[in-house]
Hints:
The complex is a heterodimer of chains A (161) and B (191).
Chain A: H1 3-8, H2 10-14, H3 20-32, H4 34-54, H5 61-69, H6 88-123, E1 131-132, E2 136-137, H7 143-160
Antiparallel strand pairs in A: 1-2
Chain B: H1 3-15, H2 20-28, H3 33-49, H4 60-76, H5 109-118, H6 121-131, H7 137-144, H8 148-173, H9 175-190
Helix pairs in contact in B: 2-3, 3-4, 4-7, 5-8, 6-8, 7-8
Amino acid sequence: MDCKVFRESLDLYADGELAPEAEADARLHLSECASCRRAEAELLRLRHALKRTVAQHEPPPELVRRVEALTGAHGQRRLWQMRISLPAPVFALLLVAALFVGLVGASLRRAPQSRQSASSPERQPIAPADTVPGGLDLARFDHGERATIYKVRRTQAGATQ
Amino acid sequence: MWPARRRRARQFEETALPHLADVYRFARQLTDEQQAQDLVQDTYLRAWKYFDSFQAGTNCRAWLFRILHNVWADRCKQPRLKLSLNEQSEGTIEPYYDWEDEFMRDELSVELEQALAQLPESFRWAVLLADVEELSYQEIAHVLACPIGTVMSRINRGRRTLARLLRASGQSKSPTEHETASGAHKLEEQS
């Protein structure tokens, strides 16, 4: 490769667009020719200066926010749409803890019922006192409801007499 | 948000958003700050709208620059292939015969920015895409929607024009420096 051919293909060489054989020829020529090395160096300096000049500008934060908002993925996430990342052991621990709390809660809820059912035979003698003629178990009703029931019964009895 | 839309948004965030600064910096070389912001916003709006047409695994930056080019062309209301008078003779490649003199000075960001602003638009696009964004000629041809031969000649003529403008600004801006330097050189010769 001579100087003329090299200078004509300097762009392609600098941009890495030459075929491998042509690139090897250009390298060989560059190693032998100081003036072509200077021409190449100037082209590379121009490139570096261009990069430096262009890199001076930074996008303003409000532009970044506006562009990020385009997808709707930023700033519009509801609480239930947020992703929570936890390490697997922590997640497993939390799961076990939740299960434990659930089981303890269920057993505590069952305990008063069983205590109630255990004490019900003692209550049974009282139950007839809470029944009115007609077989209605008044223990199921609160005082207000019982009063209403008694009132209704009394008016019915009065009407029949 | 639906899961599919959320997935699409996440892909967009991971693929396209990281290039926001590059797209903005490029846009700043085309126009002022306010218009550059509008340009970038429109580019990303269009990118988001047509994100399904982006082929995963291909160069997303090149895809975004193609959209930026289309948005820019639409704003300028110019047909994309229409060339100005000084761009019409772009078919030829000029060899770098006169690139041995050191026209590049160290602190020239301002001069370079001014020279870039004076560069014809199609040359500016080609030079910036090659030198700053380091896209391949094939990718630049895709962005600018023109043949590779046209890309080559635009890069070549763009760089040479830029060098010419820099030389001119260097000569006009610091005649005293040149005079001082030549005076010093003469003094050295005399001694």
